[in-house]
Each structure stands twice: as C-alpha cells, then as structure tokens.
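3.2 Worked example (two chains)
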Amino acid sequence: MKEESFFELVIKSIGGVLFLPFWYLERLLPRKKKSWIFGSWFGLRYSDNSRAIYEYVLTNHPDIKAVWITKDRAVYKRLKSEGKPVEYYNSIRGILLSLNAGAVFITTSPKDTNALCLNGAFAVWLWHGVGLKCIMADEKRFKWAHYSRFKKIKVWINKVLFPYENSPGKDAILNTGDFFSRFFMSGFQVDENRIWVEGYPRNDMLFSEKSDEAAVILRKKFPTATFIIYMPTHRINARKNSPFNGFEGFGFDREYFFEILEKGDYVFLNKGHFYDQTASIEIKNERFINITDNDYDDLYLFIKEMDILITDFSSIYFDFLLLKKPIILAPFDYDDYVSLERPLQFDYYEQEGVRTDNWQELLDVLDKRSYYVPSSKTVQKFHKYIDGKSCSRIVDRTKKSLGI
C-alpha cells in the first residue's frame, strides 16, 4: 500500500475535522429497527460471515429489510441479476439506507459498508475468524514498537479525527467458543456481555446438503482421489504488493511433490489468502490446482468437499474442525511469523494436528498417511455449538437486542 505523504495527511485531517460534527449528529437520527445492512471485506467482496447471514435473513425473515452494501461493480451486478437487494455505498440510496439502518453486520471493519453513516446503528461485528493470532487493539500494541514517528502521529490523528474508521459502535462481537472470549474482550476492548458465542454464520454452510459446483466438477474428474486444500494465512508484505508464496523455500522439492501426489492419488489445491491472490505460483501438474476466489462461488460449500486441510496460522483451522477431517499444521516460518508479523494469543500446540516444519516433513506425512482427525474434545474446546444453526441464533439475538 502506498504510504500517505505529509500533505495528504493534512488534507485528510482537515476533511476529518469538518465531518466530525455530522458524525456526532448522526446519533440523533431515527433508525428503523427492521432495516439491516450487510457488507464484507471493505465492500469489495460478496462472501464470508456477512454473506451467509444476509442470505439467511432474505430466505427466513421477510419482516426484515436486508440490503447488501458494496463498492464493487461486479458484486452489484451479480446481486441485481439474482434479485437480491443491493446498493452502492456512496449512492444516495446507499447513504440514506445506512443512515437509518437499525443494524449493520460487518466481517472486517465498518468500511465493509459505509463507515461514515453508522453512528447510532446496532453494530454486529461478525468478524472473519477466531484464532491464535492477536487482533485489533492487541495487534496494534505489538505493531506500535515498529512504527516510525510519522506513523505514530498518523495513528494518533486518525484516532482523534476519524472515529468512524477506528472506533464505531461495537455492540456485539461474534465468536465460536468461550475459549476465545477473553481474547476478543481484550482485542476489541469490550465487556463480556458484548461477546456473542453463537458460532459463525459461514460455518452453517459446512452442515449444508448443498455443494459448490466447482468441487463437484473436480470430484468427477478425480473420482478416487483424496483432496487436499492448502490455506496459509497472509503476511504483512502481501499488503505491499509482495504476496506470500509457500512454495518458495521451506525445502520445497517439486519432483518429490509430484511423486507423492501421484503415488498417493492426491489432488492438491492451493488457496492463498485474499491478499495473496496475485502470487505467481508456477507449478504445472494435473494434480496441482491453484485456486482464487474467482474459481468457486461459496468457499465454505467448497471446502466441505475437501478431505484434508493444510494450514499454518489461519483461522480456517478452527472452521475445518467442524468437518471432523484430518488437519496438517505447516507453520514453516514460525519464528519469523511470531516475532515480525503477529504474536500468538495461546500456545500453537493447543491446535491438534500433525505439525510439520518444512515440505519434506509434510510430504512424508502424506506418503505415510500419518495424518489424523482431531478429537471431539478439541472440537468442543473451540466450538460451543456444532449444529449449523448460527444464523438463526444471531438473528434472534439481534432482534431481541433491538426490541423487535
């Protein structure tokens, strides 16, 4: 990402000062309790927890006016063609809907919808993953020591002048199990009564009878194969146009890799993080498939068809637990990650699964089939509910909170 210049910071700060009165006046606007807006990933995607609960509300709660807010033209056209309510975040209708919405559901930040218009709305932070990494305030405290003086000044100015970007209402913070509540309380700086342990909407898809079409096609092509999906988390450099490529280094041996895939009848799917989709993965083999968000419709309907998960520090570990399938841990750059990227909130070994420290060890595990399914005790440790009914619980609780 391009670093703001001093001049750009000054201009932005002036704009922030001028807008602040309007931000606080929003609290006086009447809001419609049955008008709910949804957005995801800075307004650029139709995915994740927000999508799952939005679709659930459209199907099961006709009394609620649910509208998706987006900044992306392709998302807008898609939802319009499907007959789903959608508006651009900066359109007149999008702004008016945001200003009178009773509730807003976001996956990553208020910028998922229209951050300027949310003061006074009941904000449900669905979030995008429980996990062992520090988040929000805890992550910022870790990064503070690495900031330049100019960067620290920017952070302070942003906190004061742009409350709509940094600290809008956090009325409800969602997670999957009591185990994580203390971390969310610390990261989001809220009391325990704002932590909703109701499960993640997107995980309801793991219990669905539906399948993503892309996964069905792959199964027909490789009817006897064991499907592996590799989903590493992103690194800081991904936001600086240097996406993570897990196949560069870490003892990766292309020929041995192909040998194990063929010998074990494996199909290996590489799914990089949203930030890493531009990584150049130059591996040519019928049994290796590099996929991005454009290659499937719903990630969770897709991954439920996978047989084995490989990941490093990603929260996908905790989601995949619900499938009761094998998980292989691959934190190849563990020392660098916890010292330079983000510290962990608890011991990495509390995640059950075969841990491998390089590609040689990982391929040996595949060769010997020494992977295994994590125990029910581990699943229950991280998930209060294992039933695919998270959307129902969240909607009911939101209605109760709003007095509907």
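3.2.1 Second chain
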Amino acid sequence: MQKQISPASRLKGVVRLPGDKSISHRAAMLSSIAEGPTVLHNYSTGADCQSTLDCMKNLGVSIERDGTTVKVSGVGLHGLRHSSSPLDVGNSGSTIRMLSGILAGQSFESTLIGDESIARRPMQRVIQPITQMGASVDAREGKFTPIRIQGKSPLQAIDYTPPMASAQVKTCVLFAGLYANGETIVRESIPTRDHSEMALREFGADVKSSQGVISIQGNPKLTGRDFYVPGDLSSAAFFLAGALLIPGSSITIENVGLNPTRTALLDYLGSIGAPIKIRKFEQVSGEMVGDIEVQHAETKAGVIEGALTAALIDEIPVLAVLGALGGGLTVRDASELRIKETDRIAAVADNFSRCGISIETTPDGFTVPGGQKVKPATFESLGDHRIAMSFAIAGATSTDICTIEEAEAASVSFPEFYHYLDQLTQQ
C-alpha cells in the first residue's frame, strides 16, 4: 500500500495512544499462565501483540478480545497444552524471544515460526540460555526459524549474564526461571527496560532487582487480575519529533507510560533543547503514567552511544530524522539496528538519499549533519514499521507530497498511526 503524506502546517491537539506494545506482550503471556481470569485494558492494537494472543490461544488458553479489552482465562503455570500446529509469531521478535522462555519449561515440544523478516533474525541469544537451563532446541543453521523447543519440567536455575543488553533476552530467562527449581539470576552490565520485572510482580512472582542483578524464585503462584496498559512511549516518539520540527506545533499526548527505564527518550530530547513537560504523573498496574506536552523548538546536536543507544534503539530512526532537520546526530554502538525487521541503518541512509539528506554510515551507526531539508520523495519502508512511520514524519516536513511504499507496515505496532497524524495536522 502506498500512503501519500502532505506537508503539515503544524501539529496541534490532544491524543491518547494505543497500549504499549512491550507491556502488552508481557501481560498477555503472564495472564495466560496465571490462575484465574485477567482483563487487560488498553491492549496494543498492533499486529505483533495479536500474534502473541494467537500463540497463547494455540497453547490452550481461552482469550476473548473486544477492541482494546482482552479477557484471558489463565490456565496456571503448568496448564499450557501442546499446539497441534506451529506457533506463528508473524513479524514479532518480541513474541518469539520471550515466549521461548515459557516454552522451555513445558513438558511438550513446540515449534516457532514467523514471517520472512523473522526467518532472517538470529535467535542464538535466547537459544543459549534456555539450553543451559535444560531445554532441547533445534533450529535451522542453529539460529533461525523454524525453532523446535523440547521443554523440560522442571528446568535448572542458572546465573546468567547476557552477552548484549537486551530486555527480551532478560525476559526469556526470567520467564524460564518461573519453571526452574530455586533462584534464577540475570546480571545486566547495561540496564534495560524493566517491564517484565514490573509485570511479574503484579501477577505475584517473587522478583528482586538491585544494581543490575535481577533474580526470580521458581514455581510461584501467579494470579489473574485487572491490568491497565499505558500508552506507548515509542509510538509517541514520532509525534514528539514531528511537533519539535514543524513551526507552530503544540501537542499533548495523554496516558503515556513513563517507566524510568524507558524515559531515556524524554531525557535525550530535553538534552537537545526540547521543551518537554510532564503532567498528571501517577502509577497504574505497577507502571508510571503521565501526559506529555511539547511544542516546536530548535534542537541542538545530539550523540547517542553506549547505554543510551541500548535505551533508544527503537527510536533511533525517527531521531535520525529529527537530527537531520534539527541540530544533527551521531549514533554509535548500534549494530543491533542491522538485524531488526530490516537493516535500519541502511534503510535510513537509503531514504535520506532519496530526499536529498546527507548521512555518513558506519558498521554500528551513522552521523547526519543538521540543518537539512526534506525534498519531496518516495520512501521505501522495506516492510519495517518504524521506518514507515519515521519517514512519514519526514514527509510531513517537506514542501510537497511524499509517498511511503509499503505504508501498511505501520500496522505491526501502530495501525492508527496515519489517522493520528492526520488528526494532529488538520486541527
């Protein structure tokens, strides 16, 4: 599908975004293995999170969905059942990595598959720890889908240090730790988002966290509950960037998740001169939530490297657009971008070349000078949701209509994105 993006005179108004994708995945999995009913409120509308629900249904969990409200009849820690067909995660790397931890603790075999993008994404990072814990794993070339996991019950508790900063790997190990005897430990050299720890505690698991050491006790009793998913800060990033770039803009985004391990985005934007204000700060289902206000401002040059890169890995494409039109941006230590839904460094560089923006890439990042302008162009999303949405924001700053190829890719995480963009540009 092609989507034409018209120049925006400003972004103005108030929006409330769909539920956070990362939290929705975790809540769906944990509510499925909890005892009794759970109601998930404001569940993500993205296709990725529907893939998680579909996988849990295939594992014997009764799930009813009405828009953003999902009713889950939890089967308990040991109540999942063998799926007669492969578990299809679609485009969702989150689903395949985190669900692998739960499947490792089952007494049956499961096969995980996905789309062409998933088939290219290496999964050694989760295969290694669950194998150490006692599961048997067979994968194409040892790392690609289809992945067959022969679970073991109980698993062996381990003390694990991931070789790279990854909240999904941490989650995989912690979820597997639910099925292990004793205490499973994950040691992080660089902190990653802690939605899993928050959600595990909400459902009743014994999780401790101190100075990068996270531990979980095996065989807890997880209990169903009402669970409220805050709006997705990663989705908000596109509109925050657009408002900063387009003169006359002023927007409020309500009910956004403000977990301290995710607000590096807001800290970074503040460091380059963005006038960010937080209103109505409160705690809901273990997560901090608030309203974000921002208006147009000139931004300074930024550098994203080290721990900040890990914290902002999903937002880097749209921050590249902000940097190119603002004060500039240098990104380092981001080799992870090469193995996302697409090679996002290459995708950003290609689309910048299409609209006349200069960029210098490296194996693990790039430098883009500031003060540039977007010329009308046709952008290639390459089927990557974040590339599609990032260059829709770029197109909104242009002097004439821009076109996004495979624009439907946005539906992976944010089906309503173009509707919200139109809403904010027409007020």
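3.3 Remarks
The CA atoms of residues 90 and 114 lie 4 Å apart.
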